């Protein structure tokens, strides 16, 4: 849980924007305006993002309670920044897929750790450096069933609560990270975000941005990516049981 005030919220917003820009490989992301309001709201109240069309851009307002879970705040900021980039110079309301905001939120949390919330946190003694930027997601992905691209794009009810939501977030993190790791991945991700507002749906935007010939090819790549990730540790080495299986095959007559 973090506590926000005007200076700390502004600092957090700028830090989030800077780190998201770094992942996308762009120098500028923001074209409209955002009004941030801190309200005395009941515990458990989620951040509210509102937008209004103005000329060739969108004006945004983010309302947050004085205390809230840190991930909720980060997710709201990431969603807002991605929406602005997707809807820039368009009168159509931005339509980013849910996995994109979840994936970038987990990427920033697990890559930067609690240092991202250093201006907001109630307990600064808990700030630790995590060398494995997918440490938390790795455990979830390796111990839960795969998630298809269809379920990433249109998450069913079982992936929206509790353990199912944790599973969804971990796989969205993996999907986002592996897309960024493809050849020229950051530039392709920029193109994908812009195309989500120009294509019929995010699936068509994915095909165009990452050079998948068909959705079947995209699903096959994603399925193979999950399998490889499950069989490797943080240093990209085979896990012991997989290594033992390969040795057994080599030594068998």
Set down the secondary structure blueprint.
Elements: E1 2-3, H1 6-24, E2 33-39, E3 48-54, E4 57-65, E5 67-68, H2 70-86, H3 98-112, H4 135-142, H5 149-153, H6 162-180, H7 185-195, H8 202-210, H9 215-230, H10 240-251
Parallel strand pairs: 2-4
Antiparallel strand pairs: 1-5, 3-4
Helix pairs in contact: 1-2, 2-3, 3-6, 4-6, 7-8
Describe this structure in words.
The chain is mainly alpha-helical and about 250 residues long. It is about 50% helix and about 10% strand. It has ten helices and five strands; from the N terminus they run βαββββααααααααα. It has a three-stranded mixed sheet with strand order 2-4-3, with helices on one face. The chain has a two-stranded antiparallel ribbon with strand order 1-5. Strand 3 and strand 4 form a beta hairpin. It starts with a strand and ends with a helix.
Instruction: Report the principal-axis shape.
Output: globular
Mean pLDDT: 86
Strand order of the largest sheet: 2-4-3
Our estimate of the beta-strand percent is: 5-15%
Stretches with pLDDT under 50, minimum 5 residues: 123-129
The arrangement of helices and strands along the chain is EHEEEEHHHHHHHHH
Based on CA atoms alone, the radius of gyration comes out at 20 Å
Count every beta strand, where a strand is a DSSP E run of 2 or more residues.
5
Helix/strand/pairing class, anyone? Answer: mainly alpha
N- to C-terminal separation? 58 Å
Please count the helical segments: 10
- Major sheet: 3 strands, mixed
The share of residues in helices is: 40-55%
């Amino acid at each position: 849980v973090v506590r926000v005030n005007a200076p700390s919220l502004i600092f957090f917003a700028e830090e989030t924007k800077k780190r998201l820009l770094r992942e996308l490989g762009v120098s500028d992301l923001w074209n409209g305006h955002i009004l941030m309001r801190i309200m005395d709201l009941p515990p458990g109240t989620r951040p509210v993002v509102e937008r209004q069309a103005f000329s060739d851009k969108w004006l945004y307002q983010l309302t947050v309670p004085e205390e809230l879970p840190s991930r909720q705040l980060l997710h709201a900021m990431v969603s807002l920044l991605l929406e602005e980039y997707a809807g820039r110079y368009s009168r159509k309301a931005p339509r980013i897929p849910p996995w994109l905001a979840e994936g970038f939120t987990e990427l920033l949390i697990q890559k930067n750790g609690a240092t991202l919330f250093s201006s907001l946190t109630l307990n600064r003694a808990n700030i630790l450096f995590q060398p494995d930027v997918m440490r938390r997601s790795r455990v979830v992905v390796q111990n839960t069933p795969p998630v298809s691209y269809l379920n990433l794009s249109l998450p069913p009810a079982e992936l929206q609560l509790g353990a199912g939501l944790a599973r969804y977030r971990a796989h969205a993190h993996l999907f986002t990270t592996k897309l960024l790791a493809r050849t020229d991945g950051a530039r392709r991700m920029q193109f994908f975000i812009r195309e989500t507002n120009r294509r019929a749906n995010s699936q068509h935007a994915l095909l165009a941005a990452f050079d998948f010939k068909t959705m079947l090819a995209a699903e096959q790549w994603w399925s193979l990516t999950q399998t490889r990730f499950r069989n490797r540790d943080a240093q990209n080495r085979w896990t012991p049981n997989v290594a033992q299986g390969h040795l057994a095959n080599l030594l068998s007559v």
